């Protein structure tokens, strides 16, 4: 009878606990001291998971190098461009479909085409710039942790990672809300939508075999709310209806992009 190797799961638990502890302590310091969270903390904070993963890899070494555990090998430039382009296009299409459905149902009003075209014009340069920040999250969550939990199967592991990713943002978003930087409704909605977005990013990584599609898709500096008029003026009912539509569309996109073959578990 073959014994199951539980070492990757134990390492995953250590990595997750340490990462959540670090971000919670960091936000707690700002709250206790009465310091307003600066804008740059979001950019820098995205590198916390990557730095913690380096520490955990040193404490609990497993076979394979950094390129393997961070899923850095794209399999050539053609595959890199294809995977990244598809991931960004699928996410952008999901946001567009959400805005369209919300408009058809009378929940929101779409932006005029002139505004939409100006947004699309800046998608590529913004994605390239923001990827310098999202790299720090994706190599840890959808690279390191996704590989550690590969024995769980795609959907179980991706759901667990998406849930942890939501928890990772709770201290930051909670601090922003408590300090009055952003309204509670917007922060709560954006936090909950991280779960279906996480499924989609995991699907991109597992479909194309590297973390780069998730790095660039995550760097897309917008959401479905950016494609509608006056999103800040939405009352509670329309806001949560639109959020629910976005969650359904993102989940459907993850299902379409998910790999059809299970990944090999880490030994």
TrEMBL record:
UniProt xrefs under Pfam families: Rce1-like (PF02517)
In what residue span(s) does the CAAX prenyl protease 2/Lysostaphin resistance protein A-like domain sit? 122-220
Q: In its UniProt entry, what is this protein called?
A: Type II CAAX prenyl endopeptidase Rce1 family protein
List UniProt keywords, sorted A-Z.
Membrane, Transmembrane, Transmembrane helix
What residues form the membrane-spanning segments? 12-34, 80-107, 113-132, 153-172, 184-204, 211-228, 240-258
InterPro entries in the record: MmRce1-like (IPR042150), Rce1/LyrA-like_dom (IPR003675)
The answer to keyword Repressor applying to this record is: no
What domain of life is recorded for the organism? Bacteria
Origin organism of this chain?
Answer: Promicromonospora aerolata
Q: Is the keyword Chaperone assigned to this protein?
A: no
């Amino acid at each position: 009878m073959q014994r199951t190797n539980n070492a990757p799961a134990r390492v995953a638990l250590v990595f997750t606990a340490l990462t959540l502890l670090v971000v919670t302590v960091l936000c707690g310091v700002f709250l206790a001291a009465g310091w307003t969270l600066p804008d740059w903390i979001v950019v820098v904070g995205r590198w916390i998971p990557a730095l913690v993963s380096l520490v955990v890899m040193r404490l609990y070494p497993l076979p394979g190098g950094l390129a393997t555990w961070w899923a850095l090998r794209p399999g050539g430039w053609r595959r890199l461009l294809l995977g990244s382009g598809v991931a960004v296009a699928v996410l952008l299409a999901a946001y567009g479909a959400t805005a369209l459905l919300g408009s058809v149902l009378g929940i929101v009003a779409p932006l005029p085409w002139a505004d939409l075209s100006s947004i699309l014009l800046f998608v590529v340069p913004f994605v390239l710039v923001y990827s310098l920040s999202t790299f720090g999250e994706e190599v840890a969550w959808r690279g390191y942790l996704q590989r550690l939990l590969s024995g769980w199967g795609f959907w179980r592991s991706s759901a667990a990672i998406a849930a942890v990713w939501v928890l990772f943002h709770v201290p930051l978003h909670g601090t922003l809300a408590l300090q009055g930087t952003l309204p509670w409704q917007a922060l709560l909605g954006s936090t909950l939508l991280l779960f279906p977005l996480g499924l989609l990013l995991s699907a991109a990584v597992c479909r194309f075999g590297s973390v780069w599609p998730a790095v660039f898709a995550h760097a897309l500096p917008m959401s479905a709310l950016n494609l509608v008029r006056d999103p800040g003026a939405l009352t509670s009912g329309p806001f949560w209806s639109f959020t629910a539509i976005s969650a359904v569309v993102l989940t459907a996109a993850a299902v379409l992009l998910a790999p059809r073959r299970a990944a090999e578990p880490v030994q």
